[in-house]
Amino acid sequence: MEIINLEGTEETPKVILDKDNGIFEISGRSLPEDVRTFYQQILDWLDKYAAAPNPETNFTFKLEYFNTASSKVILDVLTKLENINGAKVIWYHHDDDEDMEEAGKEFQDIVDGLPFEFKTY
Amino acid sequence: MKYVYELHKTMIANNLILVYEGEFTQDITKSILAMAERNMDAIGELGGVKRKVFSVMVECLQNIVKHSEELNEKDEDGLKNNAIFMLGKQINEYIVTSGNPIRNTAIPAVQAKIERVNSLDKDGLKDLYKEIIKNTEISDKGGAGLGFVDMARKSGEKLGYSFEPINDEYSFFALKIVVPRSE
Asked: If you average pLDDT over every residue of chain B, what do you get?
């Protein structure tokens, strides 16, 4: 399966989606002007991946900041993951960033069929 | 050239550390954010305060960028590049202020959104956030309808706002968000 590997910028996150090596990660900053266009490639990739997923999918979110438009599309990504057997979210937040921790907990409440593990960095 | 000194004095008197007036785009948003970040880094601002100010600024600036497109396309009124953004720093708080023209017909909806947000406490805002994020779709302008809720949550205080009439069709929408300098 194709690999998505995008370098992060000041307005878009770093993204690695690599089925063969079992790496699934979105990290950095997310405040693009057009969130739909940026996240569509991720959602499309997940649709394909969902047809034949690995036994385990540990999906890492290590976000420093995201805007409210991104929060909606992050929820779309989580909703896709919820329907993949063996998927789990590893939600990182900076150790003094309570807002990012709370954001993760709120997503966890909404997507209640998807396990979350919280880690600090 | 006296206005240069007058403007300078006004900025000092109001503790304004950043004022931008003119056209708003995503690139300009990024530049303003970078300047504000550098400014807060230079004085060693607390990480949590910095992140909240950054967050409120993004929502505020992206609102202006998105809604400037609603104005008269031919820009016959000369309002398109007529928005302002300010960041003020007091001893105990940062003050993010913006002003931009909006259609008079849009005022009731904007006012209702802000009033709803201002009527809620911390838990009420959290519930509203969850309700909106579950049911919203990204609009053609790229927004999720969560901006005011998020600003109020980051601020912890009521959003200040006013509408000053410009002409029959437009008013000037001013918005003020306070971010306390303590965690």
From this structure: 91
Please indicate, yes or no, whether the overall pTM of this predicted structure exceeds 0.90.
yes
- CATH code for the domain in which residue B99 is found: 3.30.565.10
Residue B34 dihedral angles phi and psi, to the nearest 5°: -65, -40
**In this complex, do A36 and B30 lie within 8 Å of one another by their Cβ atoms?**
no
Mutant choice from A11, A42, A68, A101 vs B, greatest count of B C-beta within 10 A: A68
Sequence-ordered list of residues with C-beta below 8 angstroms from that of A18, at least 6 positions apart, any chain: A3, A4, A5, A24
Of A32, A69, A96, which is closest to B48 when you measure between CB atoms?
A96
Q: Is the ipTM of this complex over 0.95?
A: no
For A24-120, the fitting CATH number among 3.40.1130, 1.20.120, 3.40.50, 3.30.750 is: 3.30.750
Q: B89 vs A105, B83, B86, B155, CA distance in Å? A: 31, 20, 10, 14
